[in-house]
Amino acid sequence: MVLITALLIDLDGTMYHGKSPIPGAKAFINFLEEHKIPFLFVTNNATRSHAEAQHFLAKYHDIVVDDNHFYSSADALISRLQVSDSQESAFVIGKSALKHSIEELGYRLENTNEQAVDVVIVSLDQEVSYQELSFACLAIQNGGSFYLTNPDIQFPSENGFVPGAGAIAQVIADVTEQSPIVCGKPEPTIIEGAIDKLGVPSSDVIVLGDNLLTDIQAGLNADVYSVLIETGVHHQSDIEMLGVTPDAIVKNHQEFIERFLIEE
C-alpha cells in the first residue's frame, strides 16, 4: 500500500547535477506518477520558465512531466507582488522569462528614469552590467521597493562556483543600505506558495532536498516535515556545523520510497 503524501522536491542536487543525472531520480518520479502521488519541483532557479524547466528535465534527464509540476522563486515573487500595494513600474535584473512574467502581472518595465521605478526586482543574470547595478541602486534610493527572487550567493558551474542572484543583490544592498524582500528558499514564502498550488494541507506535505541551508531550512521555516537526501550538497556530517537539523535523512531516492511512501 502506498501512503498518500504530497511532495515538494528540489531539483539541482536532488534530481540531477546540472546536466549529469543522479541514479534513481527518474525511477523515483516514475513511481510518484504511477501511484498518483502529488508533487511539485520547487526551485530557487528563476532563470527558466516552467516550459523551459520541463524541456531541460526531458532533454538531459529523460524525465517527462507536465509543466504544471514546477514552482520557482519567480512564482513566489509573483505571489508577493499580487498582494502588495498597487504599483505600476518595475526595473528587473533577470532573464527574459522573469521580465515577461512581471509584464503579464501588469507592470511596465522601466529602465530609463530611476525616479519612475516603483519596484526593483533582482534575479540571476550572468550578463548584468555596471549600468544596470547603478540604475537599481538609484531607483531604490529614490523609493523603489527591493525584491530578490533567491538569496543564493553562488552556484556550481563546470569549472567551479560562480556568483548567484544573492551576490548581485548584495552589491545593491551594500550601496543602498537596504535589505531586499526575499522570495525563494530558505524563506517560507516559496514553500507556502507551492502548498497552495498543490491544494493540500501542509501536514500532508514532505519537503525533499539536498541543501540544509536552503531546502531544509525553508521547510522548517514553513513548519513542514523536511527530509535531507544525501545526493548533493550536504550530508549528515554537516548538520552540527550548520545548525540545521532535518526531520529525517535518506541516502537516496529508493530509501525515501521505502521509508515514506510504502507501508510495510
From TrEMBL:
What's the superkingdom here? Bacteria
Gene3D superfamilies to which the protein is assigned, alphabetical: HAD superfamily/HAD-like (3.40.50.1000)
Give the GO molecular function terms.
phosphatase activity
> Gene Ontology terms, cellular component aspect?
cytoplasm
The record's PANTHER family line, in alphabetical order, gives: 4-NITROPHENYLPHOSPHATASE-RELATED, HALOACID DEHALOGENASE-LIKE HYDROLASE DOMAIN-CONTAINING PROTEIN 2
Protein known as:
4-nitrophenyl phosphatase
Say which species the protein is native to: Aerococcus suis
